[in-house]
């Protein structure tokens, strides 16, 4: 069942005529006849959870928005999709820009935002043109501007390009950057819902979250909540990549098991050349990596499904997170140490440098991992890495510190033998990979 | 709301503070070891704090109304107190561990060139690592380095020592109204700099030297002239047309080596002073001397200045791991350097230069001098 990508393959859907012909902007027509409170109530009923990574209930977030008299409010769409492995928003904006614009109009109406911004990462330069064209088309057809559909509601949408920093995907850093300042995360509280953009109440939502408001209004919140399982309602876009036969963006109803998602032809289509699965990062690079033996079955022996609760079953000891839906598959030929080093390098490069544990710790972790990977590591380095990540996690201003610490922690937790092998076999580690963890074949005698 | 008082308990000491006070400021009212250290927070600078993470505390009880503890350690400089809040600072192992981690992180890219650093002796990072850090580091890699940069006629920036507290950025922005420098780049390669080598030129910009917790911003009129503990602080004032003119002069002998703003017991400037007072009035005759500044007895600045004020405590010796007071730094029991045949631990009383072979060169010098007389 597809809600967001249903019309994605219709020719010309990127443009207004085709989009409108296939039922576009019905949600705006419907929503603007309701009161803003009713729209928020529908979203609350739908149980929609933030699709950017944290999974916070959107309706609840909207109801936290402060509404002081005489102060404008803002909605900001977070299109700064920078998580390694995640490219679902790009797909959505590139093929269905009007879906986002429609979702933005409905959400702006619900929140009372007359000035709405799309903050898009600088690397998505060509999508800026697509979005701006969609906005122009929407304005020309009376969906934006003054007095939309005669309801007296004014709304304008602006697209703002970022400078290409990962940290600007964090909502307060995004707001700082949008204000034209250096993209350093703010210290919370005050939360953006009280003091956000230009110190006005602001809601920052992910592209997919705002797009999902359209089907919620069209079908009603209660109907939407029936899709999915438990508190994971609706559909979710997963951007699958890595060692799979069919990388791409898939819309799932959260009832699929992880095994089905990887091996069925409808989705990833299995692993190329009949290789075995080694590990998987199911929600973008920040979430903990899980080895194959914990991926398909939870620690209790139940089947693991592609939804918020099932993926995080067992906590970080045996589970992981849904995250932003960047599904990265690693086959038996991949080296977890090298992979962790690459991620550590990324976080070192992207740390804003504001608070000391993250600024100094990420670089330190990268240097140690580099040593281990290139055969200069010591056994004590593994414990040191563990200690550094524990000193970063939870002690920083924004979640980037946690995001940098979790992949390292999970890699050591599940693949410690591989790290140790790198230390004890420095030369061999340069020419071959450790292979499958946990059920690895005995090492052949050194030639 | 604002005239309401909140009761907050920090390390089992209860204090009453007005609503809106931060945990750190409440702790400062108690004082002593309970007060979390602060490397980036500066009460006179709006928006400062929250960055260095040395002031992390554990909130074990949120408030009277909502007694749930806070899951994460919080930055006490930016968290306001609630009525009935209970905070653990030095009584929490978690806090002590996190602080130790932060100190280690702050030091991994800090050059530890204290022996040649002008800030040594009044450096907040030195105090912090002495009080909250560990003796060694586990960091085994090269530290980041930068070229020294003159960012004005009187200020030198040595970015290698910087801990990116942002205090100077806030100072320039809030005090001078005109910001000419800021942070470039990001992460551990971020640096404080001016746009394309532009000089900082402003009447009050010298205050960035005082707010710098380390030796990254130094006074070019004072660089390498004196160690701060050889100079004696004296409060003085003058009739200055731009600032209050209330300063601290740092004397050695009759000579004024340095002029700084007066600092309170938290190391924060009491009143900002202008560049003219700071850099150009280096004669004692420029000033009306008020008298010696009050410095902490534990500060290295107080050493050798006030004779008799600090007397050796004989009982202290008994505490030195039960050893007799022969050598305070009993590193080697046998001296390899001086007289291998002498067992140092056999020597009675504090080690004296006569216990060792005389330095031939010095001895000759002394004889010459005696001869002259």
Overview of the structural elements:
The complex is a heterodimer of chains A (447) and B (373). Chain A is α/β, with parallel strands linked by helices. Chain A has 3 domains: 16-226, NADH-ubiquinone oxidoreductase 51kDa subunit (Rossmann fold, 3-Layer(aba) Sandwich), CATH 3.40.50.11540; 232-331, Roll (Ubiquitin-like (UB roll)), CATH 3.10.20; 336-431, NADH-ubiquinone oxidoreductase 51kDa subunit, iron-sulphur binding domain (de novo design (two linked rop proteins)). Helix content of chain A is 42%, strand content 14%. Chain A contains 19 helices and 12 strands. Chain A has helices at residues 16-21, 26-31, 36-46, 58-63, 88-95, 97-111, 125-140, 171-178, 207-219, 221-226, 258-263, 292-295, 308-311, 315-318, 336-350, 356-373, 379-392, 400-424, 428-431; strands at 73-79, 113-120, 145-148, 153-161, 202-206, 228-229, 232-233, 236-242, 248-252, 277-281, 290-291, 326-331. In chain A, α3 (36-46) packs across α6, α16 (356-373) packs parallel to α18 and α17 packs antiparallel against α18. The longest helix of chain A has 25 residues, at 400-424. Chain A is globular, with a radius of gyration of 23 Å. In chain B, strands 2-1-5-3-4 form a 5-stranded mixed sheet, with helices on both faces. In chain B, strands 13-12-11-14 form a 4-stranded antiparallel sheet. A 3-stranded antiparallel sheet of chain B has the order 6-7-10. Chain B folds into 4 domains: 5-100, Ubiquitin-like (UB roll), CATH 3.10.20; 114-122 and 138-219, Alpha-Beta Plaits, CATH 3.30.70; 228-302, no CATH class; 314-372, no CATH class. The radius of gyration of chain B is 24 Å and the shape is globular. Chain B has helices at residues 23-30, 93-108, 124-132, 167-175, 207-211, 275-280, 314-318, 360-372, and strands at residues 5-10, 13-18, 56-61, 74-75, 85-88, 149-150, 155-157, 181-184, 191-194, 217-219, 232-237, 246-252, 255-261, 288-292. Chain B has 8 helices and 14 strands. Chain B is an alpha+beta fold. Chains A and B meet through α15, α16 and α17 of A and α2 of B.
């Amino acid at each position: 069942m597809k809600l967001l990508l249903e019309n994605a393959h219709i020719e010309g859907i990127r443009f207004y005529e085709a989009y409108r012909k296939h039922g576009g902007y019905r949600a705006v027509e419907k929503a603007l006849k309701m009161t803003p409170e009713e729209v928020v109530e529908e979203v609350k009923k739908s149980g929609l959870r933030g699709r950017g990574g944290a999974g916070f209930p959107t309706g609840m977030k909207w109801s936290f928005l402060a509404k002081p008299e005489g102060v404008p409010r803002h909605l900001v769409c977070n299109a700064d999709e920078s998580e390694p492995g995640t490219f679902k928003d790009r797909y959505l904006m590139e093929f269905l820009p009007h879906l986002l614009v429609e979702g933005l109009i409905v959400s702006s109406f619900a929140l009372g935002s007359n000035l709405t911004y799309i903050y898009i990462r600088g690397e998505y330069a060509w999508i800026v043109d697509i979005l701006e064209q969609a906005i122009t088309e929407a304005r020309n057809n009376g969906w934006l501007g003054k007095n939309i559909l005669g309801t007296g509601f004014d709304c304008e949408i602006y697209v703002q390009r970022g400078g290409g920093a990962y940290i600007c995907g964090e909502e307060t850093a995004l707001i700082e950057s949008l204000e034209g300042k250096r993209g350093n995360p703010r210290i919370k509280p005050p939360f953006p819902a009280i003091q956000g953009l230009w110190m006005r109440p602001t809601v920052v939502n992910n592209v997919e979250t705002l797009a999902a408001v359209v089907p919620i209004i069209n079908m009603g919140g209660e109907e939407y909540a029936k899709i999915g399982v438990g508190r994971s309602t609706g559909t979710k876009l997963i951007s699958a990549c890595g060692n799979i036969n069919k990388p791409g963006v898939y819309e799932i109803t959260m009832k699929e098991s992880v095994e089905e998602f990887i091996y069925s032809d409808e989705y990833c289509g299995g692993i190329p050349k009949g290789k075995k699965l080694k590990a998987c990062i199911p929600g973008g690079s920040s979430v903990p990596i899980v080895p194959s033996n914990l991926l398909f079955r939870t620690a209790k022996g139940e089947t693991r499904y592609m939804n918020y609760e099932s993926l995080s079953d067992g906590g970080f000891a045996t589970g992981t997170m849904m995250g932003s839906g960047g599904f990265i598959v690693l086959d038996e030929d991949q080296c977890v140490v090298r992979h962790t080093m690459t991620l550590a390098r990324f976080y070192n490069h992207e740390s804003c440098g504001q608070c000391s544990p993250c600024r100094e710790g990420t670089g330190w972790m990268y240097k140690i991992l580099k040593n281990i990977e290139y055969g200069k590591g010591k056994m004590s380095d593994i414990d040191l890495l563990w200690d550094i990540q524990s000193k970063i996690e939870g002690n920083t201003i924004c979640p980037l510190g946690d995001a940098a610490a979790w992949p390292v922690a999970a890699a050591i937790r599940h693949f410690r033998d591989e790290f140790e092998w790198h230390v004890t076999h420095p030369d061999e580690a340069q020419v071959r990979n450790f292979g499958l963890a946990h059920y690895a074949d005995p090492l052949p005698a050194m030639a | 709301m604002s005239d309401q008082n909140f009761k907050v308990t920090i390390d089992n000491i209860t204090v009453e503070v007005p609503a809106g006070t931060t945990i750190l400021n409440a702790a400062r009212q108690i004082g002593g070891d309970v007060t979390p250290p602060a490397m980036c927070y500066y009460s006179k600078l709006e928006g400062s704090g929250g960055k260095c993470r040395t002031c992390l505390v554990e909130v074990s009880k949120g408030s009277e109304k909502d007694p749930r503890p806070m899951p994460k350690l919080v930055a006490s400089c930016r968290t306001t107190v609630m009525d009935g809040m209970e905070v653990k600072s030095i009584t929490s192992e978690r806090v002590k561990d996190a602080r130790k981690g932060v100190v280690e992180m702050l030091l991994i890219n800090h050059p530890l060139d204290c022996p040649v650093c002008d800030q040594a002796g009044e450096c907040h990072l030195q105090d912090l690592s002495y009080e909250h850090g560990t003796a060694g580091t586990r960091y085994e890699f090269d530290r980041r380095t930068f070229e020294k940069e003159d960012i004005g006629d009187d200020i030198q920036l040595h970015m290698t020592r910087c801990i990116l507290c942002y205090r100077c950025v806030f100072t320039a922005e809030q005090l001078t109204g005109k910001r000419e420098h800021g942070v470039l780049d990001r992460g551990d390669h971020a640096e404080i700099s001016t746009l394309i080598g532009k000089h900082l030129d402003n009447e009050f910009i010298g205050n960035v030297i005082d707010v710098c917790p380390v030796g990254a911003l130094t006074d070019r009129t004072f660089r390498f002239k004196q160690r701060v503990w050889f100079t004696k602080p004296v409060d003085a004032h003058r009739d200055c047309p731009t600032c209050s003119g209330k300063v601290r002069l740092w004397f050695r002998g009759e000579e004024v080596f340095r002029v700084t703003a007066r600092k309170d017991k938290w190391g924060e400037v009491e009143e900002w002073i202008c560049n003219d007072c700071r850099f150009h009035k280096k004669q004692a005759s420029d000033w009306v001397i008020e008298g010696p500044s009050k410095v902490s007895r534990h500060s290295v600045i107080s050493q050798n200045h006030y004779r008799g004020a600090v007397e050796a405590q004989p009982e202290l010796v008994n505490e030195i791991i039960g050893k007799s007071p022969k050598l305070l730094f009993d590193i080697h029991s046998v001296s390899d350097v001086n007289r291998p045949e002498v067992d140092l631990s056999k020597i009675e009383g504090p080690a004296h230069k006569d216990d060792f072979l005389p330095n031939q060169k010095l001895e000759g010098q002394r004889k010459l001098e005696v001869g002259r007389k």
